[in-house]
Fold this protein.
Amino acid sequence: MAFETLRDLYVDHIQDLYSSEAQILDALPRMIDKASHVRLRDGFQQHFEQTRQHAARLEQIARRLNEAPHGKTCRGMAGVLKEGEEIIKEGGDQDVLDAALIAAAQRIEHYEIAAYGCARTFAQALGFDEDAALLQRSLDEEGETNKKLTQLAESVVNPDAQKNLIVDREIISAPIRERDFGRERDSEARP
């Protein structure tokens, strides 16, 4: 599609966002299944419901524009989600995997924040105030989800993922400190 007007670009962004949301709706159930922390699973489930609302808002905007909400595939989101799928397939320690799932989810959120911000700005420039308000609402929700993910990562998931590292260091370093290596200890020598 050639972009001859700002409206053309705006419609493209709405369709791109709709494709993104549809892809996310497809991917979130797998992320929910793979998450081991209850708060993370609950957060993903809440975002799944929220994503449905985002898609419904985009459908509403498309109807107002007399355009189909679908019509293109967001390749950017497809790439971000493909990276997330690779994390899920890799497996590993559940706590570390949860940290990786949050990282993947935040990449998704950042992509959406950028896309919703652009679409909202186009709607404002075109005088589509109702659209701009709906897009701002979704943008605010995406930002809030990103903040919740950060809080969850910093307060629970990352510390849990780091526990294995701390245990590994303690197991490896304890015997080294206890070794004498057959030398007589100098009273001034540091342990």
